[in-house]
Design a protein that fits this description.
CATH superfamily of the largest domain in chain A: P-loop containing nucleotide triphosphate hydrolases
Radius of gyration of chain A: 24 Å
Shape of chain A: globular
Helix content of chain B: over 70%
Radius of gyration of chain B: 21 Å
Structural class of chain A: alpha/beta
CATH class of chain B: Mainly Alpha
Distance between the termini of chain B: 21 Å
Structural class of chain B: mainly alpha
Number of domains of chain A: 2
Oligomer: heterodimer
Largest sheet of chain A: 6 strands, mixed
CATH architecture of the largest domain in chain A: 3-Layer(aba) Sandwich
Strand order of the largest sheet of chain B: 1-2
CATH class of the largest domain in chain A: Alpha Beta
Number of domains of chain B: 1
Number of helices of chain A: 18
Largest interface: A-B, 49 and 34 residues
Strand content of chain B: under 5%
CATH architecture of chain B: Orthogonal Bundle
Number of strands of chain A: 22
Number of helices of chain B: 13
Helix content of chain A: 25-40%
Shape of chain B: globular
Order of helices and strands of chain B: HHHHHHEEHHHHHHH
CATH topology of the largest domain in chain A: Rossmann fold
Strand content of chain A: 15-25%
Chain lengths: 513, 328
């Protein structure tokens, strides 16, 4: 089902990528990938981490040239040696990490590098403001002013600024790399509105996402990449999630969420009336041995803040925490660790992994006490610990001495997770354990969570992916504005009921804990 | 096959090549290669007397660079060390000429070094002020204070027993060289095998991740600076006792020479990467180049320019290497 399934648009495609090949030292990143996008089409790129999506969009954005193959815009081959060439060709890219100047205003950010000029080539501030307002009006954005400083904006609004910036450069092809990764549900809805408006204007949108539901919501066609090769291009209407997952991983995953039921034991973590303003307000919850408790909520509802308060990163101002029945006062992560708590942070890049360190050193970092005697590290014990972790988590690394920063996202996440388990914790707090990692690594982490719960570990899992929360949790708590507003058992929870509690619809919040 | 088998990794011949291409190996090759090349041009360069003078006169830079390397690995920098060495030398010398027991004079330099650096570490770590600003302030205070207090007078008439640098162990190994090797080896082992040493790399590589692993960043930084102060004290003793006088100034840009040794030795200015063995080898190389310039009839003033070239070449090579690896 490769070339035969290729859908040919009736007219010349606006963007056409032909047989792109790209190798890096020791790695074949892309081997002959082709796809195209018509005017007004949303074309999704799908693939596991390492499938070649990033490399592909970097080539189309002019970040680096392909070894072979060509990119056509409006039927004409373009030479994309530099990002500026792509911009001239009408291609704009919005990366996951937004590239804005936080101290400058919305208008200044939009027109950075191509500000309207008046006489003597000075910046025409009035024209800039007017053009910004016109752009805002054209997308019906009413909660953003030209003069606002970007640093004060929400993530959703910052992303809108980037989109406006692309439009200000007359981009006809817009590439969006995981645009919803950091957005709230509300912002996702607004993003989709904007994407639909862009579609109506004839902009071709290349949409990269791990979230299948988004692809079905917004995309017209989807191209699946695997190991740097083109696997299939399908019309979204002609496919379903199971088929896409299978195309992505090249095998059928029985269940994305292999929840195994295990006997639930004694309470490991008991939290009562925990306070840490503004986002932890009178929180009470219990996590028992063998239990996976899912913590749902919108971004900004206080879930990560709660986790960090329990873990002593931002110690509580009031309330009570009991670990295995013992009242404790946790003032630092070091203390939390010694009490048998483990916390896998949301942002593994900045919070979880020490990138210049080797795989071995990262694995032992949270468990140095276990491999160090009299302050000195026993190399043999350390190698064994890391080797066991690599095996248990199926980390793909060339050796224990490989630099951790060079591994793929999924493998990095496995190391961050494994590092904490090396310490033999009683309670594991996972903050977005599978965000941004590919389906295969995701299934792997879910399988491990199930196994760990079966071994009696208590798990508190924060997740913004409702299917994950629904699939993995024995119980589900919903947070809103720093409070726990609802609790559901595995059986009674539905996507709708949790979603409603997250958003604050009253009829569903009556079950409030 | 999900995980790559790890057993074969040790025997991989490419790994052995990689060890040869390490910064430490390259520096060792450069140190020997340069000696041979200059020796062919002017055999007097290889005279035992000259080689030992080169090492003797510069061992203190290598000792200070060990501490500096730790500081840079932890993600900080210290530009006050040159001025501090001058102050510590003066404190020690003043005590010695005023009749204090010699051991007390020596210890005073070590203790004062630890105190001043630990204080800076506290300001950097707990008040969260960038190291470059804190140490710049300290540099001015120490330099200004030293010249004001001493009035620019040199300390002379030092008791003979004060001259630590004159001691020769077993009658052959000069104490400065012994101390340089001892400090480097101990520090290297400690950085590589101790939990505290590992904490320095973790804090410099990713402070946030280190914190969540229960490694205290402030405590690690204060510890690093305190050790750096100890090594600065040791360096000051070597510096103070190698001549018959202690000047109220230190060699100009001493801190830059020390930082150069660290950076050329392979310590990443971004933190998290580097070894003290590399910095000691680099300190030796820099001293060797300075001496070699004399023997090949080039003005020794060129040494600063050569150091600059070394820094740029090292940093550029490091960045290129990173880029090539990050490409995939």
């Amino acid at each position: 089902m490769t070339a035969s399934a290729h859908y040919a648009p009736p007219t010349t495609p606006l963007l056409s990528v032909r047989a792109i090949e790209k190798s890096f030292p020791g790695v074949r990143a892309l081997s002959g990938v082709s796809f195209d996008a018509a005017r007004g089409e949303v074309h999704a790129l799908l693939g596991e981490n390492g499938a070649g999506k990033s490399t592909l969009i970097k080539i189309v954005s002019g970040v680096f040239p392909p070894d072979r193959g060509e990119v056509l815009v409006g039927g004409k081959a373009v030479d994309l040696a530099r990002p500026d060439d792509a911009r001239r060709a009408g291609i704009a890219t919005i990366y996951q990490e937004l590239l804005l100047f936080p101290e400058l205003t919305v208008a200044e950010n939009i027109f950075m590098g191509h500000a309207p000029r008046a006489g003597l080539r000075r910046i025409d501030w009035r024209a800039m403001r007017e053009k910004t307002n016109a752009l805002l009006a054209s997308l019906e954005i009413h909660d953003l002013e030209a003069e606002r400083v970007v640093g004060t904006l929400s993530v959703g609004n910052r992303q809108r600024v980037e989109i406006l910036r692309a439009l200000s450069q007359d981009a006809r092809i817009l590439i969006m790399d995981e645009p919803t990764a950091a957005l709230t549900e509300y912002d996702v809805t607004r993003l989709f509105d904007i994407v639909r408006k862009l579609k109506a204007r004839g902009v071709a949108v290349i949409y990269i996402s791990h979230r299948l539901d988004e692809i079905f919501a917004i995309a017209d066609r989807v191209t699946v990449l695997r190991d740097g090769a083109h696997v299939a291009t399908k019309r979204v209407a002609d496919t379903d999630a199971a088929e896409l997952v299978q195309l992505m991983v090249g095998r059928r995953i029985e269940s994305l969420f292999p929840k195994i039921t295990v006997p639930i034991g004694k309470p490991v973590l008991e939290v009562k009336d925990l306070e840490r303003r503004p986002l932890t307000r009178s929180i009470s919850l219990t996590v028992r041995a063998g239990e996976i408790v899912g913590l749902a909520g919108l971004v900004g509802s206080g879930r990560s803040e709660l986790a960090q308060t329990i873990f002593g990163v931002t110690p509580a101002d009031g309330g009570e925490i009991r670990i295995a029945g013992q009242k404790v006062d946790i003032r630092s992560p070091a203390q939390a660790r010694s009490l048998g708590l483990a916390y896998v942070p949301e942002d593994r890049g900045t919070q979880g992994l020490v990138r210049p360190m080797t795989v071995r050193e990262n694995f032992s970092l949270a468990a140095l006490g276990k491999v160090a005697f009299g302050g000195f590290i026993d190399r043999g014990a350390e190698r064994k610990l890391a080797g066991d972790g690599v095996k248990r988590f199926a980390v793909k690394a060339s050796s224990l001495e490989q630099t951790a920063g060079k591994l793929s996202g999924g493998n990095q996440q496995k190391i961050v997770l494994g590092k904490w388990l090396a310490n033999g914790p009683k309670l594991l707090i996972l903050d977005e354990p599978t965000r941004g990692i590919d389906v295969g690594a995701k299934a792997e982490i879910h399988r491990l969570m199930g196994e760990l719960a079966a071994q009696g570990l208590a798990i508190l899992m924060i997740s913004s992916e409702l299917p994950e929360v629904l699939g993995m949790s024995d119980r589900i708590l919903v947070m809103r504005e720093g409070r726990i507003v609802a609790e559901f058992s595995h059986e009674e929870a539905t996507q709708e009921s949790i979603g409603a509690a997250m958003m604050g619809s009253h009829e569903n919040a009556e079950k409030a804990a | 096959m999900t995980a790559v088998t790890l057993a074969g990794a040790e025997a991989d011949p490419r790994r052995r090549l990689k060890v040869l291409a390490s910064q430490e190996a390259l520096l060792a090759i450069a140190v020997i290669g340069l000696a041979v090349a200059v020796g062919l041009y002017n055999p007097r360069f290889l005279a035992a007397r000259n080689l030992s003078d080169v090492l003797l006169g510069n061992a203190y830079i290598a000792v200070a660079a060990v501490g500096m390397s730790m500081v840079i690995v932890s993600g900080n920098i210290d530009i006050s060390v040159g001025a501090l060495i001058g102050v510590l030398a003066t404190i020690s010398g003043t005590l010695a000429v005023n009749g204090a027991p010699i051991v007390i004079a020596w210890l005073a330099a070590l203790v004062a070094g630890v105190l001043v650096m630990a204080l800076q570490g506290v300001i950097i770590a707990y008040l969260r002020i960038p190291a470059i600003v804190v140490t710049l302030g300290m540099l001015s205070i120490l330099k200004g204070g030293l010249i004001s207090v001493t009035g620019g007078k040199w300390i002379t008439d030092l008791p003979d027993s004060f001259h630590l640098a004159d001691i020769e162990l077993s009658g052959v190994l000069p104490f400065p060289v012994f101390l340089m090797i001892l400090v480097t080896v101990l520090a290297a082992l400690w950085m590589r095998y101790s939990a505290s040493g590992r904490a320095i790399y973790a804090v410099g590589g990713n402070a946030e991740a280190a914190r969540l692993c229960g490694i205290s960043q402030p405590r690690t930084i204060v510890m690093v600076f305190a050790l750096h102060g100890l090594f600065a004290g040791a360096a000051a003793l070597l510096y103070a006792t190698q001549l018959r006088v202690i000047q109220s100034t230190v060699p100009p840009n001493l801190e830059l020479t020390i930082i150069t040794a660290s950076v050329v030795g392979g310590v990443s200015i971004l933190g998290g990467v580097g070894t003290v063995a590399g910095s000691t080898l680099a300190a030796v190389l820099i001293a060797e180049i300075a001496s070699a310039l004399v023997f090949i009839d080039v003005s020794p003033y060129w040494i600063r320019a050569v150091q600059g070239v070394l820094i740029l070449v090292t940093v550029i090579a490091d960045i290129l290497r990173r880029r090539r690896m990050a490409g995939a």
